[in-house]
């Protein structure tokens, strides 16, 4: 439907007659405030940064859990914190986490497990097979037929399979984008 200039003029004049000036002013004020909010939101992009308690490295934030939990509980805690047990895809990520683990001197759970099929190791959050690995020499051993969760050891900063119900520290990972407004 096309409205001519004359028709628009008539509609506007009728609207002005029907509504009191105070209502029109209030309406105009609401329109102005809405426009300001739209402009303000338009200037906000993805804000990069890690929440407190998380350490940034490249595109991720890492939380080095300071309590000890079985692997399953560690995964749940990471999810409650907005992340997941760490998944290590590159040598750079591995070097960062390995260095931190050696410095802190305690073992940390990571997100790899062969719980589903023995010796078929997967990152359990993304359900992907391990494209990059940093197993300690001769690991994984599946010692006692019951080692199905992966940890980073502080002795050499490399990975070992261990019993999932053992309580140790854990590393969570999440994206470093904390706020996205479009
Ligand atoms: Ca990762
Ligand atoms: Ca195993
Ligand atoms: Ca082992």
UniProtKB/TrEMBL annotation:
Q: Which PROSITE patterns match?
A: C_TYPE_LECTIN_1, C_TYPE_LECTIN_2
Can you give the residue ranges of the C-type lectin domain?
57-173
Tell me one GO molecular function of this protein. carbohydrate binding
PANTHER family, per the entry: MANNOSE, PHOSPHOLIPASE, LECTIN RECEPTOR RELATED
* InterPro entries tied to this protein: C-type_lectin-like, C-type_lectin-like/link_sf, C-type_lectin/snaclec_domain, C-type_lectin_CS, CD209-like_CTLD, CTDL_fold
Query: Which key words are in the record?
Result: Disulfide bond, Lectin
User: What is the recorded name of this protein?
Assistant: C-type lectin domain-containing protein
Q: What is the superkingdom listed in this entry's lineage?
A: Eukaryota
């Amino acid at each position: 439907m096309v409205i001519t200039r004359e028709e628009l003029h008539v509609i506007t004049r009728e609207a002005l007659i029907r509504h009191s000036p105070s209502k029109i002013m209030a309406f105009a004020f609401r329109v102005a405030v809405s426009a300001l909010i739209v402009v303000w939101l338009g200037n906000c992009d993805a804000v990069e940064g890690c929440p407190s308690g998380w350490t940034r490295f490249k595109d991720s934030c890492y939380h080095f859990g300071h309590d000890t939990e079985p692997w399953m509980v560690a995964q749940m805690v990471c999810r409650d914190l907005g992340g997941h047990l760490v998944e290590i895809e590159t040598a750079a990520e591995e070097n960062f986490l390995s260095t931190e683990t050696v410095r802190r001197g305690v073992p940390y759970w990571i997100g790899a497990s062969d719980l589903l099929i023995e010796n078929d190791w997967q990152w359990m959050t993304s359900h992907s097979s391990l494209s990059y690995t940093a197993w300690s020499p001769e690991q994984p051993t599946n010692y006692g037929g019951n080692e199905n969760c992966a940890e980073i050891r502080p002795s050499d900063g490399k990975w070992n399979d261990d019993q999932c119900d053992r309580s140790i520290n854990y590393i969570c990972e999440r994206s470093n984008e904390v706020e996205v407004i479009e």
